[in-house]
Structures are given as C-alpha cells and as structure tokens.
Amino acid sequence: MRTTAYYIGFVALGMSFASLGPTLIGLARNTNSSLDGISWLFFTHAAGYSISSLLGGRLYDRFDGHPLMAGSLGVIVVTMATIPLFSRLSFLAAVFFVRGLASGATDVGGNTLLVWVHGDRSGPWLNLLHFFFGTGGLLAPVVVAQSLLLSGDIATAYRAIAVFVLPVCIWTACIKSPGISAAPGEPELRSSRVKVTAIFTLFFFLHVGVQASFSGWISTYAIERGLLNEARAAYLASIFWAALTAGRLAGVPVSSHAAPSRILTVNLCGCLVAAALLFLLPDSRAVLWLGTVLMGFSMASMFPVSIIFAGGFMHITGSVMGLFLVGANVGSMVVPWVIGQLFERWGGGVLNGFIIVLVIASFGVLALLHAKQKRATDDKARGKGR
User: Fold this and answer.
1) Structural domains of the chain, with CATH
2) Is the dihedral of CA 176, 158, 350, 273 positive or negative?
C-alpha cells in the first residue's frame, strides 16, 4: 500500500516536472518574456527545490513522513492550478519557487521512505519508483500537446495535472508512515562519509544537470532550428520521457545483477554518443529523434542507480538523501539557466555542447568513486587477511 502510494505520487511529481519544458514558449508568451528571461523559471524552481531537499531531509528524520509528503503534494496542486493565471514574470517565478519547495519535499520523501520500507533490497524498487516518475514525465508533454491542439493554450494542461495530483495527496495522508531509520553510530567513519557524500552530491549535480537541460530545452531547440512546430516539439519531449521510462523499466532486472558503477558507465557512454550526434548533425530531423531517444534511454537509470551505488558506501538517511537532491537540483537550476542565457546569442548548439562537457566531467567523478570503492574493498580484504 505504501509503495503504491509513493509510485503514484512520483507519477504526479514527474508530470509537474516535465510540464515546464514544452510550455516554455507559452509561458513566455503569457508574460511577454524572452527565452533568456523565462529561463529564470528553471532557476527559481530549482532554488526552492534545493532548499526544501536540504531542510526536508532533516524533517523526515524526525517526524512521520506521510503527513509531510501529503502536504507537499497539496502545495503542488495549488501551484499547478494557478501557474496559467500570472502575466508577470516576477510573480510566476515566485510561484515556481514555491512549487520547487513542494517538489523537493516530495522527492526526498518518496526516495527516503521507500529505502526505509525495503532496506537492502530497495534497488529494484527504486528503479520502479523512478520508472513511475518517468511515466509522469511522459504523460505531461502529451497533455500539453493535446491542450494546445484543443484549446490553443497551456492553461488546460496545468489544471488537468493539478486535478490528477489532488487524490494522491489525500491518499498519502491516510496511510501510516514507515518507522524512521536512523544511521548507525560510526563516528570513526564520519570524515570519510562526508567526503564521499560530497563527491556523490557533485555526481548528482552533473548528471541531473544533463537531464534537466536536455528535457527542458530540447523542444525549444527543435523549434529554434526550424525542425518542428510547437505542438510537434511537445511530442519530442514526450519521446524523451518515453525512452527514459522504458529505460527505467529495463533497469529493474539489470540493477539486481550488474554492479552500479558498470551500469552508470554504460549510461554515460550512451549520453555522450547522443549529444555528439546532435552536436555534429544539428539540422537532421532523424538525428534529432534518434538522439532524443538515446539520451532518454541512457539517462534512465542514472538517478536510482546512483542512490544504490551510494548505499554501498553509507547508510541512506533523510539528511543524506536531502544532500544528494540539493546537488541534483542545483544542477537542474544552474545548467538550464546558463543555457537559457546563451541560447538566443549563440543558438541551439549551446545545448549539446554543454551536455558533452558535463558528461565528460561525470566520467571523471565516477572514476573517482570507483577508485574509492576499490580502495575500501582492498583495505577490507587486507584486514581480514590479518
């Protein structure tokens, strides 16, 4: 019952996340803003998300989780319903900041509570959790496209998503929360845990920055280069989320058998190939669709497998999960914002150029984590030998 509630909650969370990318132009039109101006919505949403992730993780370590998660879902309902009403960018940015606060609390709650429910066997369950997040991301652009085709504006889409989230909020509030799982006392490892947590936080910053930038700007990229019209570009975002969702479903059995570091290496290779194809052949529609599918499938299991990988180094508490999500959401805040500032000046090639740089940096951080894991394994083996 609890796991099902988290899954449906993450469908709702995915829908709210993925609604921004295909509605950027509509929101810019509503507020008479330029693309570099409307890109501030990425920044304010992610700022709220980061603050909430950091503070929310500590709250989940101290209080029952379900009332916290239900309250955050309720705030998402209100903000999604009111987003189309604002014609001033400053007010809209404030609403996205509040929605970011609620989304961060929902995200850290779903991930942490699921780990507490399933313990050491949480790997496949985490992949399924993020599969349902991807399902929400897949549905949102379809809802946006249908709203554009039927009514000519984006208001209907935002209100439909709000209606979907409301019963999830009520259901979560009615279910008993799992027990709080405290970290075991290992003071001699505290310094090591801090360093590893910082490295993982950087890793989340990098690869979530890739995902947020690609999913948020690919529709605008296709429109800017004259490859697709606005409605078809919304379906392009949906294809990305479809590939990401399929990849997460495929990752459920894989995560039970393959080492997390190996899965992450393969994922990054796929991201690099996709970005390189789009960078080298920017005016090809076939490459646009192929690169979008490959990027979505390759990004699919990065987030849940990163959590599983981190679980091999440390105990996952709400506070630790919150730090990971802060890194993730600073990435989703900074990278899309930077791309937005340069998009109109340098064109769509900025998107894929930044992604290539971020993926290469992610390889470096993953290599560092792998080296730390190998060193810890070797030290443990030498200790047993003595």
Assistant:
1) 2-177+189-380 (1.20.1250.20)
2) positive
Alpha carbons 74 and 382: distance in angstroms, whole number:
52
Q: Tens digit of pLDDT for each residue in 169-191?
A: 999 988 888 877 655 544 434 55
Q: DSSP code of 136?
A: H
- Going by C-alpha positions, the residue among 43, 72, 48, 58 that lies closest to residue 322 is 58
Longest CA span, the chain: 73
How far is C-alpha 143 from the chain's CA centre?
Answer: 19
Token reading at 332: 């989703």
pTM over 0.90: no
Under a CB-based contact definition with an 8 Å cutoff, are residues 20 and 216 in contact?
Answer: yes
Helix axes 260-280 and 302-311, enclosed angle (nearest 10):
150
244, two tokens? 């990401």
**Matching residue, tokens 């890739």:** 210
Please give the pLDDT value at position 384. 54
Buried-state track 180-211, b at ≥16 Cβ within 10 A, e below 16: bbeeeeeeeeeeeeeebbebbbbbbbbbbbbb
Query: CA–CA separation, 179 vs 2, rounded Å?
Result: 12
